[in-house]
Please model this.
Amino acid sequence: MLFKSNSLLFLALCILPLGTVIFEYLENLNTLNMLEVFPNISPSMAAAGTFYTSTKLYLSFICIILIITGHIAVIIKKHYKKNTNYKT
Model:
């Protein structure tokens, strides 16, 4: 196992996708709010939407990179373990 299930790093990796979902909902709520007040959209509302979208995309990108990195680490670990089991 790459991480112990009770480690702080494992918990942070599990919560990271939840942050993506939270910022997705915040982005959607901000869009709904802008649609309700349409001709009178303030720059701060647009800035908040941009922030939510950017944060969501960054968190999604980090999640994808961590998933790929984790898969590569598991493959390397299995390959290393398989190669060290040979008895000479």
